[in-house]
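Entry — protein

Goal — fold tokens:
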Amino acid sequence: MDKNLCRQFGFYAVLTDPLKGYDYMTSLLADNGVAFVQLRMKNAPRKEIAGTALRMRKITDGTATRLIINDDPHIAAETGAGGVHIGQDDMPYPQVREIVGDEMIVGISTHNPQQTKDACLLRPDYIGIGPVWATPTKKIADPAIGIDGMKEMLSISTVPAVCIGGIDLTNLPLVLEAGAKNFCMVRQLTQSEDPGRVLKEILRQTPPQQKDFFNNSKSSCG
């Protein structure tokens, strides 16, 4: 698999306790061509995470959607996921890369300009930037960086970046106007009784995307 990412792939989905279930949401996202779906099951038994990951991988197989596992490179490798996302307090990037190999996508969360610089030196496939606004999805949240902090971190990122944290349909235009090419929205989608409607609106507001998110040629990447 050619994993060289375009700098712009738009909406990056994260699933944490989705109201409609992981399988349904994964199918919805894959059917709509969303580039990434990340499985984030905090404090769940490892067996449950691995089982969910395996089902999600089978759903995304043969689609344009890549399954990303949060925090655990071993589960990513064991289930044949498309990649793994690590935080600042997780396993170091070099060790993660040894576990998952060179072909798997690896992303790193960053929460301030110095972390952005340090992460980019490692040359991951992408970084996360945030939280832009305060979010209740994490028990111990990092300080919100705001639009100005987001813009600064985007300006120094040398790899594709995904903005995350408190983003919803009301403030998404501000995020995009400030220069974000990729973004994450969690609660408004996962906690909706009608996630199909919410996703349709998210994609309506998302700038036009490339046909192949993982082809780094000048003709197809923005």
Remarks:
- The mean pLDDT is 92.
- Strands lie at 10-15, 36-39, 66-70, 83-86, 105-110, 126-129, 161-163, 182-184.
